[in-house]
Fold these 2 entries.
Entry 1:
Amino acid sequence: AQSVAQPEDQVNVAEGNPLTVKCTYSVSGNPYLFWYVQYPNRGLQFLLKYITGDNLVKGSYGFEAEFNKSQTSFHLKKPSALVSDSALYFCAVRVVNTDKLIFGTGTRLQVFP
Amino acid sequence: NAGVTQTPKFQVLKTGQSMTLQCAQDMNHNSMYWYRQDPGMGLRLIYYSASEGTTDKGEVPNGYNVSRLNKREFSLRLESAAPSQTSVYFCATLTYSNTEAFFGQGTRLTVV
C-alpha cells in the first residue's frame, strides 16, 4: 500500500541548533515528494519538493530536504532553527502517473529559545 | 486572486443532518482534493478529482460523496452526518506541471 510515515510526533530543538524532521515513504515507481508547514488555524503552506535531479533540495525559509532512494526517506532539515519555525510539518508523496497525493501524520516542531 | 476558497468556515450539524462543503479555485488547476485533519491522524485523503467530471476515492471515502461539475468547483457532501465526521476539512488543488498543492483555509465541522 502507498504510504508516508513520519515516525516522530514531536521534535524539540533549541534555537540556533540544527533540526531534522524525518519522513519515509512506501510507493511504487518514482515518487514526487513534498514538505508542507501548517501554522495554528491555517491551511498548509508549501515548503519544498523533490521531483528529480539533485538529491538535496532547498526550499522556503532556509529549509532543505535530502532524498535518499535506497532508504526511501526524505528528511527535512535546517542548519539553525528559529523559534518562529515552531509549527506542524507534513511530508507528502504523489505517486507518478496518478493524481493521488497522500500525507503523513505530521510532526510538531517545537523550537525553544 | 483568491486562490482556494472554502465555504463555510465553521459549521455545527446534528447527527443525521446533511450538508455540502464548497470549494472553488481560480488558479485553473486540474486536480482537486478533499482531506480531513484529525489530531494524531494527520491529513487523510477523502476523495480527489484529476479533472472535470472525474473523481476517485482516497483513503477514507465512506460517508462522503463528491461532485466536480466544472474545473473551478469541487464539493464534498455528507448525506447523514455522524459524530465521527467531526473534523477540519481542507480542500486543495494541484497542477500537474507545477506539482505544488495549494490549500484552502479549512472548514471546521462539528457533528453533535
Entry 2:
Amino acid sequence: QQQVKQSPQSLIVQKGGIPIINCAYENTAFDYFPWYQQFPGKGPALLIAIRPDVSEKKEGRFTISFNKSAKQFSLHIMDSQPGDSATYFCAAGPYNNAGNMLTFGGGTRLMVKP
Amino acid sequence: ETGVTQTPRHLVMGMTNKKSLKCEQHLGHNAMYWYKQSAKKPLELMFVYNFKEQTENNSVPSRFSPECPNSSHLFLHLHTLQPEDSALYLCASSQGIGTRNSPLHFGNGTRLTVT
C-alpha cells in the first residue's frame, strides 16, 4: 500500500509562531495533495490543497509548499493562533479520482499556546 | 452545520450486540464512504459507494456490513465486534468517483466503544 509519511506527530508553538508540518509520498502518479484540519469532536475538514503544477499555494495564513522532485510537501501556518490548535492530516492521491483513492498521513496534533 | 450528519455520536456496545451507524448527506453528492479513525493511525478507508453501488471494500472483516439504500444515506451494521474495533467511525461524501476536484466532506463521526 502506498504510504504518506507525516511528521511531527505533535507540535507545540507559541502564539504568533510558524508551525511547519511535513509530508512525504511515494507514488509519483499522485497529483492532488490536500490538507485536512480536525478539531476535537469534529470530522476532518478540507483546509487547503495543491497540485504539482505550482510549488506554493497560499490561502490566508495557511501555505502549502510542494517539492515534486523530493516528493514532499509541507503546511506552514503564519501568525498561528490558539484557535489553530487542532489535528492536521495531509493526504495524497489522483486529482481525477481523489474521493476514493486518497492516502492519508498519520496526523499532527498542533497546540498553539496563548 | 455539517452537510454530512452521523448518528449516534457515541455508542457503547458489547461484543455480542448488533447495532447500526447511520450517515446522511445533504450535499447532493453521489459517492459515500466509511472511514475508521484509530488513535495514532492514519485514516483507514473501509467502504466506498458510488451511485449506491459498492466500489471498494478494503479487506474489512465481515462483522462490518455496509448498506447504501440511496445516494444520500449510508449505514454501517455492526455485529460481534471485538474491543480493537473501538474507534471513531467517519462517514464522508463527495461528488462522485472519477469526478475531478471532488474533495471529501466528512461528518463528525460516531465514537464507538466495544466492551
